[in-house]
Amino acid sequence: MPQFMDVHHGMKGLTADQLKETHKADLAIEKEEGVHFEKAWADPESGTVYCLSEAPSAEAVQRIHERAGHRADEIHPVPLTV
Amino acid sequence: MPQFMDVHHGMKGLTADQLKETHKADLAIEKEEGVHFEKAWADPESGTVYCLSEAPSAEAVQRIHERAGHRADEIHPVPLTV
């Protein structure tokens, strides 16, 4: 299944608990679109969050993020990894 | 050790082999700055590369990337993960 890296901006001041809660909100509904959010990394100072997922499409990733209340600003397929 | 996510733009058309080579160039000298590049993901269509590392500082990450011939456009500490 293709992998995607999506990016959220404007999350300045995000706490560890908030990151956990938003991730949980994604996980709770991800199966409905065949998506799996594997991992997320956050820089609360610049307000940037990176999410790595496996999904059938970028649109499926966005639909889950939107329904969970946090639309991604960018979603990139990442077919190459090392 | 702190984790960092750095981003490279302008890598359109990057191949799997090129990603492997550039990553190898980082790994070859990373210890000199106490850095370890754990993983990288690339989107050759938009030309975006994300690198995850453990390092003493963002400056140390940049020094390795520069010496290996590929300066990062952004380097974010990512103290929060999930």
UniProtKB/TrEMBL annotation, chains A, B:
InterPro entries: SCO4226 (IPR042557), SCO4226-like (IPR025336). Pfam families: SCO4226-like (PF14026). This is SCO4226 family nickel-binding protein.
